[in-house]
Each structure stands twice: as C-alpha cells, then as structure tokens.
Design brief:
This protein has 139 residues and is of the alpha+beta class. It folds into 2 domains: 1-38; 40-125, K homology (KH) domain (GMP Synthetase, Chain A, domain 3, 2-Layer Sandwich), CATH 3.30.300.20. Helices cover 33% and strands 24% of the residues. It contains 3 helices and 5 strands, in the order E-E-E-H-E-E-H-H. The strands form 2 sheets. Strands 1-2-3 form a 3-stranded antiparallel beta sheet, with no helix packed on it. Strand 4 (70-79) and strand 5 form a beta hairpin.
Amino acid sequence: MGQTIVRHEGGMRFVGQGKSGHAVPMDAVSEVGGRDSAARPIEILLCALGGCTGMDVISILHKMRTEPASLEIEIADERETDYPKAIKTIHLIYRVKGSVPEENLKKAIDLSLSKYCSVANSLASAPRITWEYVIAGDQ
C-alpha cells in the first residue's frame, strides 16, 4: 500500500507528499480562509487524471511508432450544485498535433482508460474509503 502524507501549513493551505517525495501544495480561496496560493484539491484530482492518461497515450503511441508532435488533454467536469459538490461527469478531449493515425490514437486512448490509467480506473470504480484517528499530546 502506498503512503501519502498531507500536512496543514496554516489557513487552508496543505502540502501533500507521496512516495516520490515531491510536494503537492493545495490551498483555497480567501472567502473560505485560504490565500489562493495553490491549486484546489479537486483541480489536482483532474490534473492527475489528465497526466495519467496522457502518459499512457504517449507511451502506447511511442510503441506504435506514431508519437504526436504535441498532446494536450482538455478536461471538462460537471459538478453537483450541493455539497459536497461531487463530480458528476468528466469529459476528456485529446488534442493531438502531428501525423498520428486516427485508429492508433483511438486505440491508445481506449487502452489507457480501460486498462492502464490507475486514476481513471480508481474514479470509475469508487474505492472504499476507511478512516481512523490518533490524538497526540502537545509534547
């Protein structure tokens, strides 16, 4: 099981750190106590989806010897209006430049979303979330 730690840095700012050791800052808007100094957690989730499927698509197209000159993934989401304002739908648009055969691109996207992208598959299957707590003294 992977370990990610998220630490509070004051206000509404948090910094996460996963097994890679890289920091992932998060913050909120000033209206709710943040300083707007970093992305919102939901934005990071959507960026993670784009990065995950993008890496898969590039890798698969590379193996097919049809790498694009560029790849951009636009992600549109629709959210519930009431709290917790969960994401209802996610729509991905893969924008490719270069001579990539359409059938290769379709196959790469399908393989990513159906088999390889851990973020997409986690979102699709709604993992069970469990929790516990520990209260430590001020020593």
